Every structure is written in structure tokens, then in C-alpha cells.
Amino acid sequence: MSSNHGSFLESVSRNFDKAAAHTNLPKGLLAQIKACNSVYQMRFPVKIGKEYLVVEAYRVQHSHHRMPTKGGIRYSQKVNQEEVMALASLMTYKCAIVDVPFGGAKGGVKISPREYTEGQLQAITRRYTAELIRKNFIGPGIDVPAPDYGTGSREMAWILDTYLSMKGGDIDAAGCVTGKPVNQNGIQGRTEATGRGVFYALREIVSYKDDMAKLGLEPGMEGKTMAIQGLGNVGSHTGLISAAEGGVKIISVAEYEGAIYSEKGIDIKKLLKYRKDNGTIMGFPGTKKMKSRKDVLEVECDILVPAALENQIRVDNAPKVKAKIIAEAANGPITADAEEILLKKGIMIIPGMYINAGGVTVSYFEWLKNLSHMRFGRMEKRFNQNTYNNLVSVVEKLTGKTISQKERNIITRGADEIDLVRSGLEETMITSYGQIREVLKRKKKINDLRTAAFVSALNKISSDYLALGIFP
Ligand code: NAD
Hints:
The protein is α/β, with parallel strands linked by helices. It is built from 16 helices and twelve strands.
């Protein structure tokens, strides 16, 4: 296992070096950007039944050029230091790409959450948080965790409560973690954010006629076929939103227990309910069982969405990938060696450090909400509504014509928090892609989106360092 995870960090490093060669930045500055600034490795005991479990856990802060640092917490048996370092590094580049003013960080707890009860998971989460507090590795201005693989809003609420119990009186305490439940200082739209961001990005990317023509595709989302690996938070929302708002047809899905296929398309909402009721996706009506769960990666489709874990597409299966576009919803699903093979095949790879940045973007909105102590839209919603109503009334008076109440309601609606969050996310994904595509067009020697995204990130991070005066 460790060699695989070692290669994840190595892949990130190779991708970094490939992009660095396209910049004129000084070597030392590049080395500083690349290095993980702080690595906190911990072991702590938790009582599970009658036994004491010694938990191995990490928090890595990759870059402090912007504060606080930010990144999710992963619960997985496969967690190790190199993996957390790789993920923390990607967070720095990701934040830079989508103009979220944080440094990158990541946490990892080496446990398989399935093996523990809710109470035991709570004990582990609280103890992990206490360790972070003790070493000053968490706080609204220091380091702000969020959900990742194996964690969700429930764990974030426990983290907040532990922080509050030890840091009572910190008025901004709610900003110490994001991805919290909405009724616990969270924000509307955070749970779906990464998947929704993948959708907004894809919709933008496939709208360029010339780019699609190179792949032999028509522009637009409608009717495109999609295969999804991993139906967790990111995979399920990507599927649900792409189908509902983009008219995409999901023809294959893989989960832990196996993979299914249907030429006619799979209804993700019904599949999620089926899995909840039956504990598996296998046997979902209207679908065929595939030989292995890995087969989803080799399905002939327009868009492949790996949304499980890193190192899924490697040299062994890369030649068999038949998708035209790969949207890296997961972090690091393609190894550096596999990427070379895929690019030679003419496959468009949309790097995770851009396409899965919706989560951190909305986490940023949540953090801003926590610091402002007010939900978005509270001040202006009614004011805007009244202004639009007055406008419509004036137009009606001047023209002598009236519109229906239904039309009036649509035109005069003031924005709620969810509308503003989605609008901010949409704006972020579209603007960032414009920046990446611009690098790709401008730098003739760059011919892949990952390198272009990296160059965009390196330019932004280096300008921060230079402005800080660290490299006079
Ligand atoms: P999750 O735990 O909610 O879901 C992951 C799913 O993948 C699980 O249901 C799991 O059973 C399944 N899975 C694991 N191995 C698999 C395999 N080999 N084949 C098929 N299915 C498999 O996790 P998530 O939050 O959706 O994260 C998924 C990926 O997206 C991770 O790489 C994570 O780092 C990345 N990511 C998550 C977020 C976020 O906001 N949650 C943001 C950015 C990136």
C-alpha cells in the first residue's frame, strides 16, 4: 500500500515540476512553494469497549503564504503521512486556482469508520480535535478543517463543540471548521458544493465548440454519457446535478461492492435510495452487473468521473480508458505515469485541483458567514425585492400593461442564502476555468489542463511570497 501512496506524493511532485519548468520563477522560491511547512503526526488513545485503541493521525499545513490554512479531514484505514502531505499540497494549489485566500492543509485519521459505532467515532473525533487545539493546529485564523473522504457534517459539528468547550469566549469560534450542519453555523449548499462545482465546471468546459470538436464531441451537456466511480458525497451530487440540470445520462456507477451498467441510463436518486434500503448498488433494476468494480473506469463514455480515492487510473488500466473527458472529482485519481498515456490518447483531463474546488469555495463562504455572524442575504433580500417590485410597478404604469403574479414573483424575488452560494460557486468555477484556459492558449508549449492550472496557481502563490518580501 505504502508504495502506492508514496507515488501519490510523487505524482503531485512530478506534476509540480512539469509546470514549474514553464515559469520563470527562482528555484528557491519554487522549492519553498513545494515544501510542506508543518507536519504534525500524532498518536492518541481512545477507549473502544474494554480495549484501548492507539489512533494514528495527522495534520499537515502545506503553505502559510495565506492564513488560515484550510483542508479536509479524511478517515480511512489507508491514511499515511505521505498521502496527507500530497493532499495538503493540492489544497494550496486548489485555493490559489479558485482565488480562495487560504494556504493548503489536510488532516488524516487512520481508521476505518465503518468499524466503529457513532459514539466511538465521536470519541475519536473529539480527541483528535483536542490534540489539534493543544498544538495550536486549529482555529478560525490558524487552520480550518472541513469534511473529506469518510467524514461529513456530523464530525464537523463534534469538532466545533470540542473547540467551543476548550475555547469558550472566542467570538469567531464557529469559523474553526467548515462543512458544519446548517443549524450548527453551517451554510446552505455546502454538502452539494463539490459535486455542484464539478457540474458548473463541466458545463463551462463543454461549452467551447473548438475544444469539443478536438474530442469529437458536440458542445453542451445535454445527452452526454457519464460513468461515476464512488457514490459518496462528491460522486452522488455530481451525478444528481449533472442529470437534473445538465441532461446528462449516467450509464455506469461503481461503489465499494461492485459496478453496474445501463445503456438507458441510471437514475441516481433511485439508486441512492436502493443502496440505502439494500446496502448495495448491485441488483439495481434495469442494470447489468460488471465483472469488477474497476471496470467502471474502462466504460466507453463521454465523461468519466472518478470520485472515490487517489491512484485509481494507473499504467496498468490507463490504456483501456475509453472516456473522452476525465473529470477528477476525487483528489489524485490519475498517477503521473498514467496521465502521459491518457494525454497521448487525446483524452481531456480536468485536474482535481480545479474541478473539485467547489467544496473549499463554499467552505470559504461558510467561514465568511461565521466571521460576519450573519447569514448571506439577510440584509438585502427584502430591500432588493421591494426595489424590483417598485420597478415592475413603474413599467406597468408607463406601459399600461400588467404581468401575472407568477411572473412578478419570478422577477422580483430577492436572493436567499442558497441562491447566493450557488451564484458565487458558479462565478468561481467559470472565472477560474477562463484563467486556466487562457494559460493554455497563451503558452504554446503547454498542452494539458493540469499543467496550465498549476502554472496559474504558481503565478498567484509566488506573487504573494514576493509581495510579502520573503524573497527580496
Ligand atoms: P465519501 O466518503 O463521501 O465517498 C467516497 C465513496 O467512494 C464511498 O461511498 C466509498 O464506498 C466509495 N469507494 C471507495 N473506494 C471505491 C472503489 N475502489 N470503487 C468504487 N467506489 C469506491 O467521500 P467524498 O467526500 O465524496 O470524497 C471522494 C473524493 O473526493 C476524495 O478523493 C476526496 O478527497 C475528494 N474531495 C472531496 C471533497 C468534499 O467536499 N467532500 C472536496 C474535494 C475533493
